[in-house]
Amino acid sequence: MTPRRCTPGVRTVHGCCTAVTAETPAIAGPGGFASRTVASRNARSRCAALLAVALTAAPASADPFEQFGTAMKYGLPLAAAACAADQDRLEDFAVRGVLQAALVWGMKAYFDGQPISRRPSGEGKGFPSGHTAAAFFGASDLAGKCFNDKPLAGAAAYGAAGLTGWSRLHAGEHTPEQVWTGALIGLSLGAASFGIGTDGASFSVGLRF
After folding, report:
1. Domain range for 183
2. Residue closest to 38 by CA, chosen among 51, 53, 52, 28
């Protein structure tokens, strides 16, 4: 069989003519610089896409600010999960996520009926804020592990989480104490790493300017 000829600047890869650019080397083994760069870009693209989907798929609400908070409750953790999967640390992320949710709901049940758990509307099970905990869990994981070299992106994630907490106050769903407690729970477990399937336990909030 006659070898396939390609035009100058194009290389044969697995029988196909493939353009070679300075940004994407023709040969890059698994774990090479090009592979890591592409994987990092793919992870960030998935994060942005999931956040956009969460914003557009959030249930309709009379208050757009409240709708934004609900979108971030799901969007930030989903974006962090996509990044964790790309970085082969999804198991560690899942364990921390389950613990975060279990802690929030356990505290809601334990403190129900006490003054600290009473919402501004008079209803119970308000301590701590689950929306805020979930948003800060996703934001701190993104900032500390996915955007550790992109401080502005990390700051944007924290800003979205902070607005989520504010939206719960604005909607009259939580008191400041309930929101701050939720933020602390989410931040602590999101920034942590238990070392499951990774190099070891660590704690990072990101934002390295």
Report:
1. 34-203
2. 28
- Please tell me the chain's helix, strand, coil percentages from 3-state DSSP, rounded to the nearest 5: 60, 5, 35
Distant-in-sequence, close-in-space partners of 127: CB < 8 Å, separation ≥ 6: 107, 108, 111, 114, 116, 117, 177, 178, 181
- 40-52 pLDDT per residue, tens: 555 555 665 555 5
> How many structural domains are present in the chain?
1
Q: Which of 142, 156, 120, 123 is nearest to 186 (CA)?
A: 142
Q: Is residue 41 domain-resident?
A: yes
Closest CA to 157 of 36, 54, 88, 39: 54
Q: What is the pLDDT of residues 112-147, one digit of tens each?
A: 999 999 999 999 999 999 999 999 999 999 999 999
Query: Is residue 87 classed exposed, middle or buried when 0-12, 13-18 and 19+ CB atoms within 10 A define those classes?
Result: middle
DSSP state of 123: -
Are the C-beta atoms of 157 and 139 separated by less than 8 Å?
Answer: yes
pLDDT-derived band at 209, boundaries 50, 70, 90: very low
pLDDT on residue 200:
76
**Residue environment code for 32-45, b if the CB has 16+ CB neighbours within 10 A, otherwise e:** eeeeeeeebeebbe
User: What pTM value is reported for the model?
Assistant: 0.73
Q: 9 lies in a domain?
A: no
